[in-house]
Design brief:
The protein is about 40% helix and about 10% strand. By secondary structure, the chain is an alpha/beta fold. It has two domains: about 140 residues, HAD superfamily/HAD-like (Rossmann fold, 3-Layer(aba) Sandwich), CATH 3.40.50.1000; about 70 residues, Putative phosphatase, domain 2 (DNA polymerase, domain 1, Orthogonal Bundle). Strand 2, helix 6 and strand 3 form a beta-alpha-beta unit. Helix 1 crosses helix 4 and helix 3 crosses helix 4. The longest helix is centred in the middle third of the chain and has 19 residues. About 40% of the residues are buried. The structure holds 6-O-phosphono-beta-D-glucopyranose and magnesium ion.
Length: about 220
């Protein structure tokens, strides 16, 4: 296996626990439209862009809206989401991830962010991690969302490396598919039963160190 010189991290659900805020904001929108959104249904929204998430929710509820109404609802959801994010602090960073990235950088590994979120920089700033990444590829930059490989391919390009030398950390099914089709090693962060297409799955970064990564990638 080629040697790994770069790690690309998804944001929501990998670096920080924003999934609960996305869920609350989407659920409120569904409730406003007259139906409920379960946690299981919410799983389908992970890694997917804002507007595509809305389309999935509308399909679940069997609701038809005009493009203009869709844009209004997506904007309203984002206002609610950002309000909820106001309460976020560096404490909301998921356990161990900061130490893991520090350790990666100390070994000379390049580190990038690959996220579907248009709020990525705001969130990183809130948790004090804006300066951690050598590159940030976010929802404002990509034209094709996950599972398309674009987000991670751009990350590799920015970091001057090749896809086969990159590892991706992802909590979403769409993100794992994106990493795999980019030709990168895909490490799922979460549950094995959900992230079935990942090369490996870890529970989180609390007990994961750089030597564990090196063992997985040889
Ligand atoms: C992804 C999240 O990281 O970003 C999705 O997993 C979210 O749930 C998507 O819909 C877009 O985020 P935002 O912040 O641009 O609405
Ligand atoms: Mg995610």
């Amino acid at each position: 296996m080629p040697s790994i010189n770069a790690c690309l991290f998804d944001l929501d659900g990998v670096i920080v626990d924003t999934a609960k805020y996305h869920y609350i904001a989407w659920r409120r929108l569904a409730n406003d439209l007259g139906f409920d959104l379960t946690l299981e249904q919410n799983e389908r929204l992970k890694g997917v862009s804002r507007i595509e998430s809305l389309e999935i929710i509308l399909t679940i509820g069997g609701v038809h809206l005009t493009d203009e109404e869709k844009a209004e609802h997506a904007a309203e959801k984002n206002v609610r989401y950002l309000e909820l994010c106001q309460q976020m602090t560096p404490e909301d960073t998921l356990p161990g991830v900061r130490t893991f990235i520090d350790e990666l950088k100390a070994t000379g590994m390049r580190v990038g962010l690959g996220s579907a979120s248009k709020n990525a920089k705001v969130i990183l700033e809130r948790i004090g991690m804006l300066e951690y990444f050598d590159t940030i590829v976010d929802g404002n930059r990509v034209t094709k969302g996950k599972p398309d490989p674009q987000v991670f391919l751009l990350g590799a390009e920015d970091l001057n490396t090749s896809p086969e030398n990159c590892v991706v950390f992802e909590d979403a099914v769409a993100g794992i598919q994106s990493a795999r089709s980019a030709g990168m090693l895909a490490i799922g962060v979460g549950e094995k039963s959900v992230l079935t297409e990942a090369d490996f799955v870890i529970e989180g970064f609390a007990n994961f160190r750089v030597h564990d990564l090196i063992e997985l990638s040889i």
